[in-house]
Amino acid sequence: MTSSCSISAESSSSLFGKFGLLRHEPQGTHKVHYKESCEWDFVLETPKEIDMSLAIPHYRARHQPINQRLRLFVAGESSPIKLKICRPVPRCKFYLEVQATSSNVTIWLPSDFRGRICYSGKASFSAGFINRIMANIRLNEGGSDKWTGDEVFVETEGTVTFRMWDVHTNAPEKVHRETLKRLFSCSRNTCETRINWDFLLDD
């Protein structure tokens, strides 16, 4: 599935010398760059626990076609996978694919994410995700193969959790704040539904 341009945490020294790849551990922050001759712009395959922030550039690369998405591939086995997709502006679309055997996967998507999400197994969504992203996505729906917007595909027998990365603060969602927003929103909608305002029309 991966090409010779892949970057792997398990890369050998010979691979590094042959292709000039920068080795990195499946932890910390990695800047993603468009690779013109590669199938994937970022690849990480490792049995280790993954906890990474993938920084999407705010510009389109010089040789990157206008409708060409950045393609990100992450594969694991049973260790937890945590990925934060950090994108300052929605100009650069991406396709993220996560493949694992039984890993529990947690993904933070940018709050301006608009696109498709497909996953296997059981999924949960944080308050921030519901508040800011849920209305702009299509979940597990088939669509045109010519789709060029944001897209996420996750396959694992473990649990999948989607959270929100706030593009305004350049940081993961603040759980307490988003939970309160969610609670007040639900309360307001409930009140508006239950109250009969027809009494205002009475003489």
From TrEMBL:
<protein>
    <recommendedName>
        <fullName>DUF7330 domain-containing protein</fullName>
    </recommendedName>
</protein>
<feature type="domain" description="DUF7330">
    <location>
        <begin position="48"/>
        <end position="123"/>
    </location>
</feature>
<dbReference type="InterPro" id="IPR055754">
    <property type="entry name" value="DUF7330"/>
</dbReference>
<dbReference type="Pfam" id="PF24016">
    <property type="entry name" value="DUF7330"/>
</dbReference>
